[in-house]
Write a structure and sequence with these properties.
The protein contains 21 helices and 13 strands. It is α/β, with parallel strands linked by helices. The strands form 4 sheets. A 5-stranded parallel beta sheet has the order 6-5-4-10-11. Strands 1-3-2 form a 3-stranded antiparallel beta sheet.
Amino acid sequence: MIGYVRDHIAGLLEAVGIGEQYITLTDPPQKKMGDVAFPVFQYAKELKKNPIEVANGLAEKFNQETEDTLVERAEAFGPYVNFFLNDRELASVVLNLGERVRPRVADSQGTIMIEFICANTHKAFHIGHLRNAILGESLVRLHEYAGYRVIRTTYGGDVGMHIAKCLWGIEHWQDDGYDAAKKNVLVSERMKFIGKAYAYGATQFEKDEKAQEEIKRYNEMIYQKDPGIADVYETTRSWSLENLERIYQLLDIRFDRYYFESEVFDRAIEIVSEGLANGIFEKSDGAVIFRGSAHDLHDRVFLNRAGLPTYEAKDLALAEKQFDEFHPDAIYHVIGPEQSEYLKVLFKTLEFTLPESKGKEFHIPYGWVDLKGVKMSSRTGDVVTAEDLIAEVKMSIREHMDSSEAKANVSSEEKERIIENVSMGAVKYAFLKTGRVNNITFDVQESISTSGDSGPYLLYIVARFKSILAKNTSDIRVSSVTVPDVLNPFERAVIMKLGEFEGVVHEAIEAKDPSKIAHYQFELSQVANQFYHECPVLDSEEMVRRFRLTLIETVVRTMEHGFDLLGITTVENM
RNA sequence: GUCCCCGUAGUUCAAUGGAUAGAAUAGGAGCCUUCUAAGCUCUAGAUCGUGGUUCGAUUCCACGCGGGGAUACCA
């Protein structure tokens, strides 16, 4: 429902004597039952009267006492009082509102840090990471729109056991694998080798005690920056970073600050050692732990028996650095649900080691990404990488493009740009349309679908409207447009939907869930598409043409804005 | 065992405590001398179970059942 209209009607209801606390407004189930509904149950209960009688009386009273240009009349439907809006006023309000739909640049809400894609080096970037990346970017944009100053950060695990497993794997898996990878110019091929080597190391770690001992030794060497492995470590690390950077570019993601575990582990040891002296931590079984169980949580190890920091300890030092460098009012960690319990312990620990962090650290979990029919596991190297998926989607979009008729005036560079934008739109929409906390069972076939509830469908609707605007020669400045007294059902449906935009964005920010926007984009597309089929624009009589052009211009602008919040770019042709 | 998420049409997803629980997809039938057929129109099907709170529960609470995750020296 349109925010302005809701506030307006609430005001009118108060004017006829309804207490604010009884007013909640909803949408009627059918168009013919009005535009806004007021359920009177609460109010009737207070009066100790039958809700149906109350609704009847109230509707009558409202009509007698209220003079309003926007609300034409009220009518009782059972225990509801429904309001009918004047077409002309409604259209004026919404189209005017369309003018105001723009990213805000205000900087008044404070500073937040959004930390996402905490991808480890030496590991494949799979579709789970892809969801994180796309979600994180959208959350950044939503909060920027809401008026926050947003610091974009990522934290890479470039030291620790997973690297040790990989380096050990490189050494033992294939005699000439590493040399072959070095000779290969393709980063993606190099990363495939890294993935295989990691998988081998991880499997041997579990199967073979001797390998396990050696890998632990490798881990110590990494922390000690041992010259014996320095070269292979640095080389493979830079491959990983190069690969990540390529993916960020593909996704149109940037960061203000890249944090690495390697820059915090020294300080991590200090923090825990100091905390041990202060009684925050305690020794247990040779390790240094935080007694989470004393706070209804669970115990965690911060320094292992070898005196090396676990990721728990490193996170303490990271937080210290983040607050020190940016003084954020809040830090949102966009991390998978499996870390949810861990993060509770971490945040509790931070209250002791870094009191200023109290109440400012938040976990933004998101659902798991499973492959339909397949079990994904980076331990066995059995993953669908982001790159594989994007390549597959691109191929499918390209096929469509080649067989499409509407590419007459499109140059080959333009065509490549379209394929790029539509493909990324398809992938991003596929991940964002599901509610944030819900798991996604990902179907590659479905993700390359271009019909129905998909990115390409939405972009297609926009492209068709843009095409009309491009062909237009009429003057559609605000001063030249007249709103008709009566809207047809298709025009009306589009206008009602357009009016919901602001409220939806608000909900999305509140819930930190871009899927609300994605759903809205789809709904707006559907009603706009019906309008497209039923209402000729360019062939209409002058007044109607100008009005409808204004309407579709607002649709395009609103869609583009919604897409921008999702990190998706529209196209002119497809 | 304990703790945390999640259970809605065949499938993938919606639904600030409100009226007849919506879409998409899969199947069937139509629609291109008409602003792009990546489109449109018509056609069936669902709230895991049992209680509780409420005028009203998919939504909130309790207990089951089912799926996933976490639970000490990996991240």
